[in-house]
Design brief:
The complex is a heterodimer.
Chain A lengths: L13 E6 L2 E4 L3 E2 H20 L18 H25 L10 H22 L23 H10 L23 H15 L5 H14 L1 H4 L25 H10 L14 H12 L6
Antiparallel strand pairs in A: 1-2
Helix pairs in contact in A: 2-9, 3-9, 4-9, 5-6, 5-8
Chain B lengths: L6 E2 L12 H19 L16 E4 L4 E4 L2 E3 L5 H21 L2 H6 L1 H17 L2 H9 L4 H27 L4 H10 L4 H21 L1 H7 L2 H5 L8 E5 L1 H4 L18 H5 L19 H12 L7 E5 L3 H5 L7 H5 L2 H23 L3 E7 L6 E2 L5 E11 L5 E9 L4 E4 L7 E4 L4 E10 L10 E10 L5 E9 L4
Antiparallel strand pairs in B: 2-3, 3-4, 5-6, 7-9, 8-9, 9-13, 10-12, 10-14, 11-13, 14-15
Helix pairs in contact in B: 1-4, 2-16, 4-6, 4-8, 6-8
The chains are: A mainly alpha, B alpha+beta.
Chain lengths: ~290, ~475
């Protein structure tokens, strides 16, 4: 055994390694540092045993503690549902018409309903509830079946013209393709067109007006103001579910329209139906 | 071939008691810093009903930071960022002027270690007694002293961890809950962790923390230059060290006083070294010895390396202010002061109303049955005062626009409770014949006015019409 090698300049022991005459000094690391390294290794082994760690083909090892982030989320959701149980019970019993903006229950219903709307309703009505051609805009003040909270809730619960719920909103416009001659169709279209616009052909519209009174006014009303009991739209306003130009009107008169909405009472819980009703009512057009 | 040892055990250090100017100064710093740390959570500050009356409180649950009369909301976190930047620049300034003065005087590691060494000395005696005890067998005497010391250390640790949690919730309530064992587990866990770190870092790891764990000693070298005042040994005056009777001897009598008092276990006479935290205790120790042997003080002293050639030639060192006042420290001071002034300015122009208007752009507009165009805006109004206030909302625009608040029955005023944010939905409508209804964009500005004080805030936004 040779003696310790010491670097002359610094007085520090060397490791004995030398490269081109340059020797490596040995400034030893503190031993506790090494212990810390071992401790972290032991910790790591314990962690791998206790928690999900090793990726397998289709999942990962589950760990003896049975912890999972998904399970934690589920537990948090359950916790929140337990916290909200009282509000849900209140919502199920409340008379929706008496809920006032600013109430805790109203706020809860709006945020719960908003979440339900995004998940279930936005596919047709849009994430901002602005609708699209054939899917009604829920932000405006025009309602086919009524815009107070009870009617909104009824529409959502039973749907429109579906075949699964006997209480669904129902009405059916006849297709006038076979009933009217082509010039009669032109006249009716011109009359409806003239109701909300001034640049129409007055003579043609006058002819259409008589046809309208005989054939359409039963549902749409003598002044074309619509009938909410039948879901017959007001034809004199600025809102057109299927488009308000002459071509769209002609298509509607010839072929009729048959908009369908599912009965959400069959798919959602009672509190979700109520919440989404409050949400839709709160969007700005609610009556 | 002899394999060198790559790992070394810690060499125990037994700092001797010392007295003098710097030691006295350090006692005062310890009293002040520990006093601030332990007592601050107990200071009360009346903020009125429904608000905490703790002067300094980090209220995580409600996302507020209270500092005496100042209340910081999460969106004002830049104040905290600014303070941290100021703390960083302050550290740069002090390091460039006075070396590792933070490490030597005010670093919590130094202060708590100092306190732990004080306790150690009270229980086990001064350096020589402690060295003897260290070497002694583990008999009843040694166990008794060690257990007493560890117990006191542990109590200090508990107090340290305990004081920490008081900053995050009402201190008297939490104190009572802690004693009843009804406090939140997080409080106990935090106290336990901080007790353990205080106990281990202050009692056993001490200088190891500074040498091996802390990054600051490495960074500091970048802020120091030859004009930085730092603790050093006047080797040209002290050497050759040894007995004074020898002809041509230096002033150093090699009494080891400077080494014995050093909490880092180094010999300052070896020159500047990484381990030195410039606690200045060796200055006190050496001055004491110099006085006793009738030599001038300052063999070990605060000095700047740039003075060394002059001092070796027998000249006097330049005055301290000439070292401290230099471009580098002036730049740090200027930056520090600029950020401080900016923060103060931001603090004073802070409004007690905060208005945010987000237009609902899905959809951009709604056609009403009469052809009117409606835009929807979400107006968030924050009342940062401790009292309920009522606000009036209005808008200004070059075009005719009508405003309506949801759920307010046609009223344009609405209350915002103290310290709350309210979300008010606002409908703005242009009649079909108004130009704004058929124009792509129309500028408008929302105004809120505190009905009580007349204070106003506004935000500009746009109205979208339907282009035919």
């Amino acid at each position: 055994m040779s003696e310790k090698k010491v670097d002359e300049t610094t007085g520090v022991e060397t490791t004995g390694h030398s490269w081109d005459g340059i020797e490596e000094l040995n400034n030893p690391l503190p031993r506790w540092w090494l212990w810390t390294l071992y401790a972290t290794i032991i910790w790591g082994i314990g962690y791998v045993i206790a928690y999900p760690a090793w990726p397998m083909i289709s999942s990962a090892t589950s760990g003896v503690l049975g912890y999972s982030t998904r399970g934690e989320v589920a537990a948090q959701i359950a916790e929140h549902e337990a916290e909200n149980a009282q509000l849900v019970a209140q919502l199920n019993e409340a008379d929706l018409a008496t809920l006032a903006p600013g109430d805790d229950l109203h706020r809860y219903a709006v945020s719960r309903g908003g979440a339900v709307f995004k998940a279930q309703c936005s596919q047709c009505h849009g994430s901002g509830a602005a609708g699209a051609t054939g899917y009604s805009n829920l932000l405006d003040n025009d309602w086919l079946w009524g815009g107070d909270i009870e009617n909104i809730a009824l529409t959502i619960r039973h749907g429109i013209r579906n075949e699964t719920d006997l209480d669904a909103r129902y009405s059916e416009m006849p297709a006038y393709d076979e009933v009217f001659e082509d010039d009669e169709i032109d006249a009716v279209v011109e009359y409806v067109y003239s109701l909300s616009r001034s640049e129409a052909d007055a003579t043609l519209a006058a002819a259409g007006s008589e046809l309208f009174l005989d054939n359409c006014a039963a549902c749409h009303g003598d002044n074309a103001e619509g009938n909410r009991d039948l879901g017959a739209p007001n034809l004199g306003d600025a809102i057109w579910l299927y488009g308000g130009d002459r071509a769209a009107l002609e298509y509607t008169v010839r072929n009729a329209r048959y908009g369908v909405m599912p009965a959400w009472g069959q798919r959602l819980s009672d509190e979700d139906v109520r919440a989404v009703s409050v949400y839709v009512h709160s969007l700005g057009g609610g009556e | 071939m002899n394999t060198p040892k790559l790992y070394a055990a810690r060499e125990p250090i037994f700092p001797r008691r010392v007295s003098g100017t710097f030691r006295r100064f350090k006692w005062w710093i310890m009293i002040v810093t520990l006093g601030i740390y332990y007592l601050t959570p107990w200071i009360r500050w009346d903020r009125g009903p429904n608000l905490p009356d703790q002067a300094v409180l980090i209220d995580m649950a409600n996302r507020r930071f209270y500092f005496f009369w100042i209340e910081i909301w999460p969106h004002e976190f830049y104040f905290v960022a600014g303070l941290l930047i100021m703390a960083g620049l302050g550290l740069f300034l002090f390091t460039s002027a006075l070396g590792r003065v933070w490490c030597g005087y005010t670093c919590p590691q130094t202060v708590w270690t100092d306190l732990y060494i004080l306790v150690e000395r009270w229980i086990e005696g001064d350096r020589n007694a402690r060295v003897r005890l260290h070497r002694a067998k583990w008999d009843f005497h040694k166990w008794r002293l060690r257990l007493t010391k560890w117990l006191v250390w542990l109590l200090i640790g508990v107090a340290t961890g305990g004081a920490w949690v008081f900053y995050f919730t009402d201190a008297p309530t939490l104190f009572r809950d802690l004693l009843n064992f009804s406090a939140h587990p997080v409080a106990y866990i935090t106290i336990a962790v901080l007790t353990l770190t205080t106990f281990v870092f202050g009692g056993f790891m001490r200088e190891q923390v500074c040498i091996y764990m802390c990054p600051w000693p490495r960074i500091q070298a970048a802020m120091m230059d030859p004009d930085t005042l730092t603790v050093a040994y006047r080797e040209w005056r002290g050497e050759p060290r040894g007995k004074q009777r020898v002809e041509g001897a230096g002033d150093c009598i090699d009494c080891m006083a400077c080494v014995n008092v050093c909490p880092m276990g180094i010999d300052i006479r070896d020159g500047q070294q990484l381990e030195c935290i410039t606690c200045a205790l060796c200055i006190d120790a050496c001055d004491d010895v110099m006085e006793r042997i009738g030599k001038p003080r300052g063999l070990i002293d605060y000095l700047a390396l740039s003075d060394e050639p002059a001092e070796r030639a027998g000249a006097k060192p330049r005055p301290i202010w000439q070292h401290v006042l230099r471009l580098r420290t002036l730049i740090y001071t200027a930056l520090w002061a600029a950020i401080g002034a900016g923060l103060l300015y931001a603090l004073f122009i802070r409004s007690d109303i905060e208005l945010t208007v987000s237009p609902v752009r899905n959809p951009t507009f709604v056609v009403q049955s009469d052809g009117a165009i409606r835009n929807i805006y979400d107006v968030r109004l924050r009342n940062k005062l401790g009292e309920d206030r009522e606000f009036h909302l209005s808008l200004t625009s070059d075009e005719i626009l009508r405003i309506e608040l949801e759920g307010r029955d046609g009223q344009l005023r609405f209350p915002v409770p103290a310290n709350q944010t309210i979300l008010q939905r606002v409908y703005v409508t242009a009649r079909p014949q108004d130009p704004a209804a058929s124009r792509d964009r129309t500028d408008l500005r929302f105004w809120v006015e505190d009905i009580g004080s007349g204070e106003r805030a506004s935000q500009a936004t746009t109205f979208n019409g339907r282009v035919q």
